[in-house]
Amino acid sequence: MQIQVDTSKGIGNKDALERWADNELNEKLNRFRDDITRVEVYLSDENGDKGGANALHCSMQARLGHHQLITVNHHGTTQDEAFRGALAKLLGSLETTLGRLKNHRDRESIRKDGGVAGQ
């Protein structure tokens, strides 16, 4: 599972943030490791140079080997709040999506015997 973290100009200490985000994502997404090929994280400060209250935005995309891209977004007043909110949403989406796929794959086919019932 590849992890890429990008930030806007208003976000400082990018190297430490990348290491922290990489550790968090590897720990929390470990059970989905076989299904996820790549996770992209983008943190931005929507107020930028304007000053005022922080309006941080975190977008996460998980690329799955056998399914469509999953994208989530979360706004927060701190980097931690924005990141953890997006991660919680991503976990919920992965559980729902991958749970449905697993149930679909494990279901027995009505065509199991090669014929239609009653014929």
Q: What can you tell me about this protein's structure?
A:
This protein has helices at residues 14-28, 79-106, and strands spanning 2-7, 36-45, 56-64, 70-76. The protein is of the alpha+beta class. It is built from two helices and four strands; from the N terminus they run βαβββα. A four-stranded mixed sheet has the order 1-2-3-4, covered by helices on one side. The model has no long low-confidence stretch (mean pLDDT 83). The protein has one domain (2-105): Double Stranded RNA Binding Domain. 36% of the residues lie in helices and 27% in strands.
What is the assigned CATH homologous superfamily? Answer: Ribosome hibernation promotion factor-like
Percent of sequence in beta strands: 25-35%
The overall pLDDT, averaged over residues, is 83
Provide the gyration radius in Å.
19 Å
Low-confidence stretches: none
Helix content: 25-40%
H-E order:
EHEEEH
Tally the helices: what do you get? 2
Number of domains: 1
Shape: elongated
Name the features.
Double Stranded RNA Binding Domain; 4 strands; 119 residues; 2 helices; alpha+beta; four-stranded mixed β-sheet; elongated
Give a quick precis of the structure.
The chain is of the alpha+beta class. It is built from two helices and four strands, in the order βαβββα.
Task: Itemize the secondary structure elements and their pairings.
Blueprint lengths: L1 E6 L6 H15 L7 E10 L10 E9 L5 E7 L2 H28 L13
Parallel strand pairs: 1-2
Antiparallel strand pairs: 2-3, 3-4
Protein name: HPF/RaiA family ribosome-associated protein
Organism: Rhodoferax sediminis
